[in-house]
């Protein structure tokens, strides 16, 4: 994310939305951090090119749709 490009900005936005919505839903890990499975889903979103076709909020919503393990 060192280089500013639209995909990097959307990925950073997705991370912010995850923190905001995760806290709002009471879904942060007990330590107050992201749940481990969210990070895996975020990595998968990057692999499939989600930041090039979805907003950060859409990516976060998709990650949060999947029930916690």
For this entry, give a set of tags:
mainly alpha; 69 residues; single chain; 3 helices
Fold and architecture overview:
The N and C termini lie far apart (28 Å). The chain has helices spanning 6-25, 36-47, 56-65. Helix content is 61%, strand content 0%. It is an all-alpha fold and 69 residues long. The longest helix is centred in the first third of the chain and has 20 residues, at 6-25. Helix 1 (6-25) packs across helix 3. The protein is globular, with a radius of gyration of 12 Å.
Average the pLDDT over all residues and give the rounded result: 88
How many DSSP H or I helices? 3
State the separation between the terminal residues, measured CA to CA: 28 Å
Oligomer: single chain
- Report the count of strand segments: 0
Rounded radius of gyration (Å): 12 Å
Order of helices and strands: HHH
| Portion of residues within helices | 55-70%
Which stretches are poorly predicted, pLDDT < 50 over at least 5 residues? Answer: none
Derived from helix and strand composition plus strand pairing, the structural class reads: mainly alpha
């Amino acid at each position: 994310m060192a280089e500013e490009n639209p995909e990097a900005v959307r990925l950073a936005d997705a991370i912010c939305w995850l923190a905001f919505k995760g806290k709002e839903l009471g879904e942060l890990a007990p330590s107050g951090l992201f749940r481990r499975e969210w990070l895996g889903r975020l990595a998968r979103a990057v692999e499939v090119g989600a930041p090039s076709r979805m907003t950060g909020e859409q990516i976060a919503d998709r990650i949060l749709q999947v029930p916690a393990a």
